[in-house]
Design a protein that fits this description.
mainly beta, five-stranded antiparallel beta sheet, 3% helix
Length: 495
């Protein structure tokens, strides 16, 4: 005799969320309307599993790398969980293990042998788990401060701002955290469209399980010395963590993370006040050209850079514009929006930023970033004076209020919090550190009210008169999943 066993939609969704840690799971109501519209709003539940991947930090024997990791919030009574970053190798040795929420942990590595990392957090350490690696190379061709946030693996990445020009050495780092091989394609687009790759070099790139590979972009198209390119990384099988690294003769090096997915309006937050050169690179991946308004959101409002008020981006071609010292002594953020509100064309974008002059220059990159959402965290900040600067940008027409919290340091201190109102069309900057803090600490930004906010953190570590720096954008930590309330019973037959 068969028996009908009721299974609610909420139970199914909660089970999936617990297993996968997906950010959002929704289902339509019986009449096609959303569950919220049906009068049964979705509940939010903490994720129970998070996965992060970090690239191999450096090829320099004198590199010094600091890994930091944190899960924001407080420990739940009786809560259990683990969060470990391991070398992305088959031997998989632990590099850093987090002990409890709200308190960051750090680990150091030296030289060129430091591995790429992958790791999993589960239980009460999973929601909002964040990690960062910061590398200092004091001298040599790859000198600079190279910072990057560890990210979830994916299947599709856009990297506007890479280059194969003489004097540049750009690589795409691909890390496979899984037990099966991944297969990757890399396509490049220049100012005249698709860059023809040498046969057999840019397609079907195999990334073995638990391994990493750095692909030289110049090797994919020998002889194609192009200053401004867009690289598109996709997987045919599996998933990878993907990040670009750029080095430039006499100017330094840094990581160039993927841009936010193609969209009509972009925010590139946190251009330093003393930037001596800012170059915007944009790409329209569809079949339509994009005409973009270019605005600089500063402390008191937004302006159009003289002579660069608009940018025309031809479909399938990389466009660029030299904005020079656009901030002119005041920190700001670049906002790109459709010139014609009736014609929105998705684009991706990034900034190449230089601080200093002559032999004392340093390069960094800022990619277009999504809003911080409910909460976002950047894990590695330093308590030294003027080392850490947080930038907060609200697009025009929508004021917002956020709460910023500095965690204790890896070596002690008390957390500190501050609320900030960000007026629409402006960029506000903030320096906040834990009271008596020692060691690296985390900054967490939470939306309190109002419109969307975009954020980045600039970390400055000067060496020998060079203003070495790195800027990381913040993104929603997806610490909860949406679990809709059931509008009907789902049933299965069991024998």
């Amino acid at each position: 005799m068969k028996q009908r066993v009721p299974l609610t939609l909420a139970a199914v969704t909660a089970a999936l969320a617990a297993v996968t840690g997906l950010a959002t799971l929704t289902a339509p109501a019986a009449d096609g309307a959303s569950t919220a519209a049906a009068g049964k709003p979705a509940a939010r539940m903490p994720v129970e599993r998070s996965l992060l991947v970090c690239p191999a930090p450096s090829t320099s024997d004198i590199a010094e790398t600091l890994y930091t990791s944190i899960t924001p919030g407080a420990a739940a009574p009786g809560g259990k969980g683990t969060a470990r970053l391991l070398g992305a190798t088959k031997e998989a040795k632990p590099v850093l293990e987090l002990k409890e929420p709200g308190k960051p942990m750090g680990a150091k590595a030296s030289g060129a042998e430091a591995p790429a990392l992958s790791g999993v957090a589960d239980g009460f350490l999973a929601p909002g788990w964040s990690a960062q690696q910061t590398t200092v190379v004091s001298v040599g061709r790859t000198r600079g401060v190279l910072g990057v946030g560890c990210t979830a693996p994916g299947t599709d990445f856009w990297f506007p701002g890479v280059s194969t020009a003489k004097g540049r050495e750009d690589y795409v780092h691909l890390t496979n955290p899984d037990d099966t091989a991944a297969v990757v394609d890399i396509k490049m687009f220049g100012p005249d469209g698709t860059v023809k790759a040498e046969a057999g070099t840019s397609e079907n790139i195999r990334i073995d399980p638990k391994s990493t590979k750095a692909i030289s972009l110049a090797s994919l198209a020998p002889g194609a010395q192009l200053a401004d390119l867009t690289a598109h990384v996709t997987t045919r099988a599996g998933r990878v963590g993907a990040t670009a690294r750029s080095g430039e003769e006499g100017v330094g090096s840094d990581w160039l993370p993927a841009s936010v997915d193609p969209t009509g309006t972009l925010v590139l937050p946190g251009i330093p006040a003393d930037a001596t050169s800012v170059r915007l690179v944009a790409f329209a991946p569809g079949d339509e050209d994009a005409d973009l308004k270019v605005k600089l959101a500063g402390p008191t409002g937004s302006i159009s850079p003289a002579g660069s008020e608009q940018l025309h981006v031809k479909a399938g071609m990389t466009a660029s514009v030299d904005l020079k010292d656009v901030t002119r002594g005041e920190p700001g953020s670049l906002v790109l929006s459709p010139a014609d509100v009736k014609k929105t064309v998705p684009v991706v974008a990034a900034l190449r930023v230089v601080r200093g002059t002559g032999a004392k220059q340093e390069i960094g990159f800022i990619q277009a970033a999504a809003p911080i959402g409910a909460r976002a965290t950047v894990a590695d900040n330093r308590p030294e004076a003027n080392a850490t600067l947080l930038s907060l940008t609200a697009p025009a027409g929508a004021d917002a209020k956020v709460k910023v919290t500095a965690s204790p340091g890896t070596e002690g201190g008390e957390p500190a919090s501050q609320e900030v109102t960000v007026k629409g069309g402006t960029t506000q900057t903030l320096t906040l550190a834990p009271a008596g803090g020692k060691g690296a600490y985390a900054l967490t930004v939470e939306t309190v009210s109002g419109g969307p906010v975009h954020a980045s953190r600039t970390l400055t570590i000067p060496r020998d008169g060079i203003p070495m720096f790195t800027t990381q954008t913040l993104s929603d930590d997806h610490s909860t999943v949406s679990v809709p309330k059931a509008t009907q019973d789902l049933s299965v037959l069991t024998g």
